[in-house]
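Researcher: We're teaching a course module on how sequence relates to structure. For the next exercise, students receive a sequence and then see the predicted structure as tokens, so they can try to spot secondary structure elements on their own. Here is the exercise chain.
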Amino acid sequence: MSTSPPPAATRASHGRAMAGVLLALLLILGGPFLLRPREAGEALRYDRRLVILSPHNERVRREIGRAFVEDWKARTGETVYLDWRIPGGSTEIALFLKSEFAGAFQYFWETTRHQPWTAAVASAFADPGTPPPEPAGSPDDLARAARRAFLATPVGVGVDLLFGGGAYDFHQLAEAGYLVAGDAAAGTGLAAIRTAYPDWFGPEALPAAAGGEPFRDPADRWCGVVLATFGIVYNRDVLRRLGIASEPGQWSDLGQPGLSGQVALSDPTKSGSVAKAFELIVQQRMQQAVAAAAARGRPEADGIREGWLAGLRLIQRISANARYFTDSAAKIPLEIARGDAAAGMAIDAYGRATQEFVRRPDGSSRVGFATPLGGTSVSVDPIALLRGAPDPRLATAFMRFVLSPRGQKLWAFRPGTPEGPVASALRRLPVRRDFYTAENRRYRSDPDEQPYRQAEHFVYHAGWTGPVFGALRFLIRVMCVDTHDEQRSAWRALIAGGLPAPALAAFHDLDGLDYDAVRDRIAPVLRAQDKVAEVRLARELTLAFRERYRRARQLAQGGEGGR
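Model: And here is the predicted structure for the students to work with:
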């Protein structure tokens, strides 16, 4: 066998082949760096970094972030990198914080305090219901001490700010101890902003509440930045195809038989905004029933109870019209814009943004958004400093910017207007009452929107639905989400049969789920966080609703309903 070297041409060919292999390896290994977006490369060259946890969409992050970074650069000469963390919606964010803070505090508790991490400590350290420590020797002493240690220790999770979500979720997170007011003397947090700008925190600028909804935390742990209303997003082309002449304007319109299979909904146990919309449906029915009870000389409590049942029955109809339940509120307007559904519930930010996205050159849009008059409160999307924030002073500067007159204009001004967004209209309603002036009206995307006037048409009563809010989400899951196939089948049979009264009564059978029973029996089970008891209750109610829907379908079809 010959051992002579290969010809020069062969060696050259092998050399080219090896070079090609090396080049391919370099592209594979270096591709992510070569193809990295420019802004990611820029993120490697910064003076300070701010980590923000947020459910806000990309347009909000881009416009608000750009404006703050430019403002900070002009004032200080420093380059800031905004590190956005987007784990999902409000529910996913709450679960993320709960998990991360549990891990961080466990590490502190075991390594610094040298204490055992028990089930009692794990459940007590972030529980606002944990009583203060008692004298040593009491059985709960360790758990109570853990709660006090958590509130006194700057244990963090590597995140500076929580930006966006619902006031209810912010309140829960603040009570747990994850959100903090900061230190006015150290120039951090909302406490410092309130001290420096006391005129911002008054009824003419940033009121404490409006229409019954809290706009900021009395302890300065969170503050609303932008307003949020809830309404109906719809597709005009699909409505026309269905033969529905009038555009939906009230929640009850989503329950009409003509929209069977054409409503887009999200699971309220996974979406805080959709859960809030369902709560508003119940609140509106309660207000109507309370007014009717008062007119007949009956007590308010009677109206609350009647409105609760009326609200649940409307939710059943709306759910029965749903195609299915998505896992994200943001998907609802997208499905409607594509024509996969005719209408659905949405927070105003999603509805108006989708309307804007599909707007035609002549200004018209196939997507519309309606806020039910008297059917929605005006609430807020807040911002808050997180416990153990890595850069609390920079976080405070960001909060101050978004609450300032300059920052508020970004939410509502048209692109290209003075101090407005650059590329995208955010079409949100600023929280500051002094924003709504004739001067600013000239530049607004929605100049006719007057949210503080709208708030006068709906007064949110936290005492009515607050004690059963978690139970409402749970009930919608068992009577609508987990039983949706049976519910839809029964509803279609009801429509085909002309909505016969006996079948409709079976469909809306809410025996055992009146207001008092839910408040006194179901809500305590959920608050106790006993997963075994919760699963047992969910199974019991799911089976009951499946049977009720089966009976309703049989009655509608002329059967005996299981007798």
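Model: If you want an answer key for the exercise: The radius of gyration is 28 Å. The chain has 23 helices and 14 strands.
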